[in-house]
Amino acid sequence: MIRKYMICGAAAMLLASCEKELDFKYHDIDPLLVIEGSLTADEATVALTLTTPMGEPMDDSRLTDAAVTLHDLTDGSEVTLLPGSDGDYIAPTGGVVGHDYRLVVTRDGESYSSDCKMRPAVEITGLEFNWIKMPYDDVAALQVSFADNADTDNDYYWVRIYRNGKIYQWSYVSDILESGGIIDEVFATTRKDIDEEDDDSILLDGDVITATVCKISREMYDYLEAIAQPGSNGPRMFEGGFCLGYFLASPVTADEIVFHPDEIPYF
Questions:
Q1: pLDDT digits (tens, 9 = 90+) for 254-266
Q2: Exposure string for 167-184, b = 16+ CB within 10 A, e = fewer
Q3: Contact (Cβ atoms closer than 8 angstroms) between residue 47 and residue 84
Q4: Which of 9, 134, 138, 185 has the most other CB atoms within 10 Å of its CB?
């Protein structure tokens, strides 16, 4: 059951607390390079795109004309990432917790680099839906619970929700929400009357909902906080040429639940 103290505090903010996805938009200038780099326990992945002018549909076409390398600053090793079938640069090289890494992207004579320490994995301790009565309709609240080390301060997390494999919502969380070594993050999902719901939010019976949690740096937390604001592309995360995006080194823990509206209890 979702914890009462979380629902009482979160119900009024449910619809405003989560963002759908990271959209990079810039207006009145030439397109900028966007680098979205991720090093997990299993592989390194880098997506290269260009910004989309305001007012135009998002274009996530991948760029494959760059040189991309990952450097382990702790042991001195280096690996080259190559474009895969979907256009993302990949390498079957997992990160080591505690090691420092540098991602370097070179394109059109410009070089971009970003450093990040590999953080430990996070344990997801619970994933559940509950119906919550709101003034306009009943809303399915999804609670993601995960462990936080109560003995350390200033821990930060990125929580992402996927609907049938595609990004649905995300949020950034600090350990200020920790209670008894657990953080509960609540997402407002679909309304019960799906005729009144839009396609971005609607959940249907049988939809597979996947939650992922990873630990992040304070810099990444500030970046996500900034990019969640309308019209913001966040602080600069790369040295060298000017670009947008981020590099994150962190294991990703995942759990999933199947949405069956008739089986969800009311809080």
A1: 999 999 999 999 9
A2: ebbbbbbbeeebeeebbb
A3: no
A4: 185
**DSSP state string for the chain:** ---HHHHHHHGGGTTTS-BS----B--SS---EEEEEEE-SS-EEEEEEE-B-TTS----PPP--SEEEEEETTT--EEEEEE-TTS-EEES----TT-EEEEEEEETTEEEEEEEEPPPP--EEEEEEEEEE-SSSEEEEEEEEEE--TTS---EEEEEEEETTEEEEEEEEEGGG-BTTEEEEEEEEEES-GGGS-TTT---TT-EEEEEEEEE-HHHHHHHHHHTSTT---S---EES--EEEEEE---EEEEEE--GGGPPB-
* Domains with residue ranges and CATH for the chain: 4-22+120-216 (2.60.40), 33-117 (2.60.40)
In this structure, the chain runs to a length of 267
- The pTM of the full predicted model, rounded to 2 decimals, is 0.86
Residues of the chain with pLDDT under 50: 1-20, 26
Nearest to 30 by CA among 108, 102, 82, 88: 108
pLDDT at 239: 97
Interacting residues of 49 by C-beta distance below 8 A, sequence separation 6+: 24, 33, 34, 36, 59, 60, 61, 62, 63
Contact (CB, 8 A) for 169 and 19: yes
